[in-house]
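Render this sequence as a predicted structure.
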Amino acid sequence: MNAKRILTTLVLFVLVALPAMATAGFLDAILDPNSKEAKILSGAQSVLSSSQQMDYKSERAIGERLAVEGLRRYGMPTTNQQMQHYVNLVGIAVAMNSPRPDIPYRFVVVDSPVQNAFACPGGIIFVTSALMHTIQNEAQLAGILAHEVGHVALRHALKSIQRAQFFSGVGQITAATMKGDKGAQFESMIADMQNVLFDKGLDQNMEYEADASAMETAYRTGYNPAGLMEVLVELKRIEASSPDKKGSWFSTHPPLASRIAKNQTQMKKYPDAAKLAVLADRFKAKAR
């Protein structure tokens, strides 16, 4: 318990101490037309070679390619730098307590009226501005971010495509340009992953697994793990009056009622949850 409180206090300290450069990276580089990221955006780089197991560099390269599509579909990052900084700090705090804390994560709020959040392989995670307005406190934000971190940690997007056997024997993306059948196959794989992430959604059991991981991760970080469930309850209320569900949480995730029920059951593991951090005032000060 004390360790959780100490970690949450450290997050508050970092909000003041961490330099702004900590949130720089891939998404800033797309503004440079000569950068690798900009070339990915234009489709100039798409390369593949064989290996037994995919390495992190290759996973991240695929994630960056998918992140570009996320920007195209949902909109560019919000210009509210305080919000971006804050979301990254909360995200990094939960990622440190996730099943995969040893990779760099990047969290981005994009301007979009659609209620959604999604994770690209390698640790690039998006949250829409509409979902940020639905969230009411830091524990809820931590729950949502921990859910997406769970997808990355458990490699859910990659496993979805592996089931289609494309990644059988594939391990590394190199600097060599693919041509012919391999290049076409890679582009087809990217299109399939786009469909999974942005249209169809991941396997239902993967979503349940990410929820369970999120609640455990939030709890270990010192947040009330009920935060995720509270957001799902509010989304269920919004869903009833939502005219267009395409590309939203409602179309890319399992039925909310079943997820809420599973989360309620898992809450029994955390009898001291009500004593943990919620931080509504800090969220309002930093994310509005």
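Summary. The first helix runs from residue 2 to 17. The chain has 14 helices and five strands.
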